[in-house]
Amino acid sequence: MCGGTDSMVALAGGTFRMGSDDHYAEERPAHKVRVGAFRIDPYLVTNREFARFVAATNYVTLAERPADPALYPGADPALLEPASVVFVRPPGRVDLSDHYQWWHYIRGADWKHPQGPESSLDGLAEHPVVHVGFEDALAYATWAGKQLPTEAEWEFAARGGDDVSEFAWGDTLAPGGRHVANTWQGEFPWQNLADDGHVGTSPVGAYAPNPYGLFDMIGNVWEWIDDWYQRHDESPGKPCCTRENPRGGRRETSHDPQGPVAVPRRVTKGGSHLCAPNYCRRYRPAARMAQPIDTATSHVGFRCVVRQ
Q1: What is the pLDDT of residue 112?
Q2: Distance (Å, rounded) from C-alpha 173 to C-alpha 196?
Q3: pLDDT attached to residue 76
Q4: Do 181 and 219 form a contact (C-beta atoms < 8 A)?
Q5: Residue 219 CB: number of other CB atoms within 10 A?
Q6: CA 156, CA 162: separation in Å to the nearest integer?
Q7: What gap in Å lies between CA 189 and CA 187, rounded to an integer?
Q8: Could you tell me which residues are beta bridge partners of residue 306?
């Protein structure tokens, strides 16, 4: 669906209110940012389109390659084999502070085998590609003659001209009881009521577009962003994304200081089908997440832009 550049949506750019003062600390402060004109894919990159890229280039994704032992001294060799991170629903309530209760590192999981080595893409051609690392998304974008969006560009596009409302469609998560994005209903991570009709990812375009004609900007899968991760309030004197510098973060400050290994992190935006009111209320344009660049997961994909 995303294909070439002819189908991309042209946005004139402008100044908007980025971030939020009302939710998670990493979204603060709300601040004015100006972005230039750009075009953006109306849909997430699908499995069908990623397969075309792989067929044309013989590209091997991050999850399909063994990890470099030099980057992980002392690691168990079994953990360096080709693998990816997969969401596995636990049978009952678990400690929400321990994400290992539902995230599992599964050997043989990759974009062609999204749930593990015995799974396939049958019936998923128009679903967003997942288990792609940042370098995989960048490789696809380069092959397609495109780029990955900056955080400011992505948020500008997701808001659809409204930088005041809580959500991309207004101030109510499910207006009139109608689900307008693929998110989690029920108690995360064990109870998935699937009131929106989907367990896991949904085909791109399954929900109505935002006012700019863009689909799945909220929910379904998180999206890789070109910027290094940094909290908006961590830059000295001003937010990391500003009118003067709409690109945020620096590689040297993107690492998680609490992490066991100093792995740089990129921004991801948009939330996913795993975002739930009781756990991760990141189904909003202002929301953001830090994603290590050495990791691919079952709930992160991407779309591309072309700058004017």
Answers
A1: 98
A2: 12
A3: 82
A4: yes
A5: 27
A6: 9
A7: 6
A8: 39
Write the pLDDT tens digit of every residue in 227-269: 999 888 776 556 777 776 777 778 877 877 676 667 899 999 9
Confidence of residue 126 (pLDDT cuts 50, 70, 90): very high
DSSP secondary structure string, 154-207?
Answer: HHHHHHTT-SSSSBTTBS-SSGGG---SB---SSTTT----TTS-SS---TT-S
Each residue's pLDDT tens digit, 218-237: 999 999 999 999 888 776 55
Q: Are 144 and 53 in contact (CB under 8 A)?
A: yes
65 residue type, one letter: R
As a residue count, the chain comes to: 308
CA Rg, the chain, in Å?
18
Question: Which residues are CB-contacts of 233 (< 8 A; sequence separation ≥ 6)?
Answer: 25, 28, 29, 239
The pLDDT assigned to 72 comes to 81
| Residue 77 pLDDT exceeds 90 | no
- State how far the Cα of 163 lies from the Cα of 184, in Å rounded to an integer: 24
